[in-house]
Amino acid sequence: MVRVDPSFVERVKKLGAFDITACYNCGNCTAICPLSSEGHEFPRKLIRYSILGMENKVISAPELWLCYYCGECTDTCPRQADPGGLMMALRRYAISKYSVGKIARIFYDKVAAAFSWTILSLIALIGLVMFMNPNVSASEMEQNFPFCFIGKEFIHDAGLVLGVIVVALALVNLYIMYRSISLGYSRRAKGSVGLWVKNLVLTLIREVAAQLKYTKCENKLRYIGHMSLFWGFVGLFIATITGFLRDYYDIMIPPEVSLGLGVIFGILLIYGSLYYMVGRFSKKEAYAKYSHHTDWVFLWLLFLTGITGFLITIFRFMGYPFLTYVLLLVHLVVVFDLLITAPFTKFSHAIYRPLAIWLSDTMDQLAREAPGEKEAVAEVSQ
Amino acid sequence: MNEGGSEPLILVFSTNTISDPGIDFTGLMHLHYPTRTVIVRLPCSSMVRPQFVLYALTHGFDGVFIAADGPDCPYLAAACVDITSQRMAEAQNLLKENGIKPERLAMAGICSVCAEPFVRSIKAFYDRIKDLGKVEIGEV
Amino acid sequence: MSEEELRIGVYVCHCGGNISDYVDVKKVVEAIKGEPGVVVAKDVMFACSDSSQNEIINDVKEHNLNRVVVASCSPKLHELTFRETVKRAGLNPYLYYHANIREHVSWAHTDTREGATEKAIRHVRAAIAYVRNAKPLEPIRQKTMHAVLVIGGGIAGLRAALDLSRTGLNVYLVERSPFLGGRTPQLYRVYPDGRRGADIVKDLVSELIRRDNVAIYTNAEIKSFSGYIGNFEVEVEIKPRYIKVPYDEIKEKIKELPDEIPDEFNYGLTKRKVIYYPYEGAFPRIPVLDLDHCSDVETIKELLGDAVDLEQKPETVKLKVGAVIVATGFDPYEPKEGEFGYGRQGVVTLPQLHRLMDLGNGELKLNGREIRDVAFVYCVGSRQKKSSEEEEVNEYCSRYCCNAAMYISSLLMEQGIRTYHIFRDIRTYGRHERMYDEVSRKGGIFIKYNEDEPPEIEEEGDKLLLKVKDLLTAGEQLEIPVDLVVLVTGMVPRKTPELDELLRISRGRDRFYVEVHPKLRPVETAIGGIFIAGACQAPRDICETLSSASAAASKAATVTLRDVIELEPFKAEVDPNICDLSKKCIEICPYEAIEIKNYEGIGEKAWVNKAKCMGCGACVAVCPTEAIQLNGLTNEQIRAMIEAAGKEVII
Amino acid sequence: MSVKSWYERKYYGEIEDLPEEEYDVLVIGGGIAGIQAALDLGDMGFKVVLVEKEPSIGGFMYKLSKTFPTMDCASCIATPRMAQVFHHPMIDLLIYSEVEEIEKKGEGDFRVKVLEKPRFVDSSRCTGCGQCELACPVIVPHEYDWGLAGRKAVYIPFDTAVPRIAVVDLDHCIYCGQCERACPTEPPSIDFTQVPKIHHLKVGAIIIATGFHLFDARLKENYHFGEYPNVIHAMHMDRLLAPTRPYHAILRPSDGKEPNNIAYILCVGSRDKTVNNPNCSQICCMYSIKQAQLIMGALPLADVTIYYIDIRAFGKAFEEFYQQAKDMGIMLVKGRVAKIEQKENGDLIVWYEDIENGGKLCKAEHDLVVLSVGLLPNKEIANVFKGQKLEVDDVGWIKPVDENANPVETSIRGVFAAGTALGPKDIPDSVIEGGAAAMQCAAYLSEVRGRH
Fold this sequence. Notes:
The complex is a heterotetramer. By secondary structure, chain B is an alpha/beta fold. Helices cover 39% and strands 16% of the residues of chain B. The relative contact order of chain B is 0.23. Chain D is an alpha/beta fold. In chain D, α7 links the parallel β16 and β17. Chain D starts with a helix and ends with a helix.
């Protein structure tokens, strides 16, 4: 027995699923979806869960993350109920649900989010200013360009601390998500470690590195945009690490490598974020018709990360120290904002999605091997 | 064609609004059926008096075919089928009593554009009557 | 006529080759030249052309012809043409027969010229045999009354009466209950424009009562009925109201009476007095004393004095009308005790919801409690499954209910009330789909149940708990706490056994009145001159009811606007001298056209009412003595045609 | 087609202007609703002129096989009515004619211009023998059969046409003159000297019964109508099932195979905001169920599956008809087909969600897919009114001015509408509205003429 809770859909509607109750259950969305598959039908199933207020079913549904928002369901929905928009809204909802102490909710509330971002940015700024080298001379500046202004060591240490915190938070969030999703499956299906590892590797290669599911969407440009964004970010991360490795551990990586990587992946990141920003601005495609503020923040942070990093390099070579310093400040603040909130914002789909795919693939496999067990859906208690 | 009447002669009762136009339509489509068929139109197939059938079979005809309206009948609608069937049964009894094979009477529902069905049924009936031969009183 | 010498003219058409290419027209003419009575036998290129028609007219005059046969195309095309031709030549048009030698002969037998020619000869011979036995016929001219009786004062009856009176016809409107309007005034608001049901009725009534050619009888019933199309005689009995003055004059005094009787206008949700006036604006404005439920006549006399007159007696009015429109309407389905929780506190029907909303002036309250969540359960009393033969169930879909429930739930949702819809199929057909869209878009929750697993309704605290298995969510068992359950009930036809008996109109398997033919004659009954309109024929909404009422009015106008109606002369006729009164014809006639009549000097024999006879001939086939025959196609003619066509053809 | 475009085609130098004729009522549209309205008015004693733009009256109904739910044959109902209106002494027909312009001068006084297109066949002489049709060397797809079969450039519109006379299709005529030589009448009925005529009518009231057109299924791209040969629309199927059908068999278009697994997809172009038609088309459920029942009769071994969203069997005896279909073994699946794929052999794969059986994503193979297309309004009529505006709704159906008082009255007093000009509806409802419009006309005319 499930008690119908109409308030749930009201909450989800606020996250972008404005028209979803218009659904008249024709099933077109599920059947047109290139990613929906037998056993993992969506989005209509989730429409029903949402409308009836079956929250536990929603957050235990790996289908949320199997959806890449191609938009075909929305484009062909005869009632224009925007099923794709619901899936997106549910992901937003799920992100806030999966997070430690439901912190992520803050970022999905417009006012609280604005407040939090400001505070975070200020913390970063104050921290940076506090650790700024106040009496740096002009010659030092030239010599130790640009890190004389803020201590390299500080950035390194702060970065490490930040990294540890973010990873820890992310792991906790992932655990919460794992708990949620596994509720949708029989708990007995444990499987061997080997299978789990094998599937993890496969997921990382297929769905993280190559993002094969995304290719099933009709619009291939968006796949390229997403890949650019993803690899741009990853590449820049690697480029940054190469710098660190060189500067702190004296591993002899030629600076040209860092620079080259930075330029290539910076361009990718900028292209990717611009592609999505233009898309969301022009609102032509289904996914871009409605943009939640978290979508914009995420894109802006990515874009700013890329563009400031890029400009720093340019100004540095052109010899504009002041501009470089200012931009460095901005860059560091943006990167701080981006990373510290990553487990709680849209960024977190980067970890939830692979986990969901990994879990569902493996559990499906186990369920197939032990037929009838998947049906025994465990009762969820909240 | 007509060699001393070795070929049977069929009387077709059609109905003004439905089956007669249906037979018209057969002509329109230039579909062929035996020529030795004479069509007499009535308002409704329920008007066929059993005695008419006997009269026809004793006045030169070898078979009587009722092209009925079926449930499309503008007068009696679905009841037409039942009423006409009753008349058919009576007529067949009357034929038997008079020593004529009741198979010489047949009925089919012919709609106003039922060209093919008409040709099919009238041909089948014609062949059947041909096998029975000319009417002879006392054939049963 | 029989004394007269037969002089027949036969014209065989070439149809410009259409016939002559496959039929040897000359041979046909040769073959029939010798037939007795044939004076002129010719072949013509185009019989239907002006010149040929004139040729026929000239021949009639020149050769003194008194019978004509044209053998050409299908009679469907030109039989009327040639009847006109013959008429212009001064002959009775029914002394003509049309032989079909194109569609039935030449076109069907393009493969054998010889066979086709033989068949053509047989057809022409049969035609000649027909005319030889033909008698002149006159169309039956029936004087009609310029008046129409409308039975039922709901919107269908009102619309029909108004339409007819606008054309100048006299209209008699008879309503069984004491007030006009039928079921419509009970509706709170109706889609698509949100008008109040009472206002719709008020508009129609106020237009109608302005007219001087309309007589309205309320509290009246049909007592006797006879006659036929164009001329019906009807007796209407008007029951007494016992109250003589308008409502406003005794309004205050009525208030002093105690509430006694469940108010049927509010479906028993409230009580009414023994003197009642159901709703503001009801017509006529004179209240009624419900004497059957009145226990204390004396108090009433005392209280109302002269306003009440217990001596009133039923009156009878005799009417003569040309046509009758039956618009007796429907009753809402009354669920059985326990059906979908009916009988429980908080479970009401859709008509009751309308009354609740109307009584609350749009606010929905039940026993003073505010309502937050409402569940609509659809298909109550409709689409029922038949479990045994005897059981009377409604297998039909009631058509209007989805739309009606959808509209009223959109009104509820405007007040912030949440709606749940427990349905089987949402049938908001046509543009009503917009209402479904609107309700779901606004947040109405739709749950589809299986007919075999209907929702269960239980009590939970001061709320109701609706339990249902949702087909749309893989059979998930759901629980919905609600304040009010609305059973969306269908329509059942109003039961009027006495009227059915009097008018002799029949009902179908669904117990609604049945039309002669749903497409050709959708508002006509098998009895000529009696038409049906509105929800007594099938479940309908207001808009469709109004259309069908106007359509029925239109048919009634085609009968009554003219002074005479001309009926084809092809009618059955009884020769009383032969009739043995087997009554078989009476039994078989589907139109109740045959009666027993006392013929002077002969006694009781069958008699055909030609105004009722449709000329099907079913009676002809069953008459044991051939006393009953069809004019225009007598048994003699049929036999003559058979004989002529069966003769051997020697070419 | 406007006069101007006739000029532009330069076939004719002139247009014949005819003197004004007076009628009580103009009925626009010779379909079943218009015919019913004309007959009722004629029987009441009004003088009626019925304008039909096609070369025969009959509208849509004569193309159908049988009609639901009584399964009576459409021709048996339509053709006698057509003949009746043709022979009615009070009714004149203007066939192959279009209303160009309507101007309201006052109550009960409308001035109408009607363009009568030249038939190039003298209707007083033509006997409908069809010799010209046999002689004509040009073959083009026949509209009557929705292009399933062919016709000639000179042709009799269809076998039960009223009037049953030929018409020359000048767009395809090659001016070989064979028809003229083949015509048996003297002089030949074929007459290439005919010119368009303008009829000037003075009428008291107008009934619009201009009907509907079918949704263009090509707009639903995922169904690949017009691209995959075995995806047809339901009116094709109705022709294939009719007694007057083109091939005397039910064959699928790609290879002429007899289909044995047929799918119906409902709501194609209806209840669909992506094609701007949020309305339900009201008849598609039922005509699909009707066809499915007829297919079960014609091809007893065939499987028929109907994919639906809601089955709208709402009219008199419809629900019973629907239950009967289920009992006959017709499969009904709740789930809208989202896309169709074609296999090499022409078979089709449909994708849908089987909603009532757990919501499984399914693929099914069929050898023929029938799209139950919806109905859309014929919008041209709203443009012919000069000076006054005929209100239509956002889809284009004529909007009654007050649905709950007088459902057939339009925004222009004295102009009434009937049948599918007001919205999708079935034959009984159209016939009823034809009668209702006739009644309203009669009442209106009586009032404005002061008879009462």
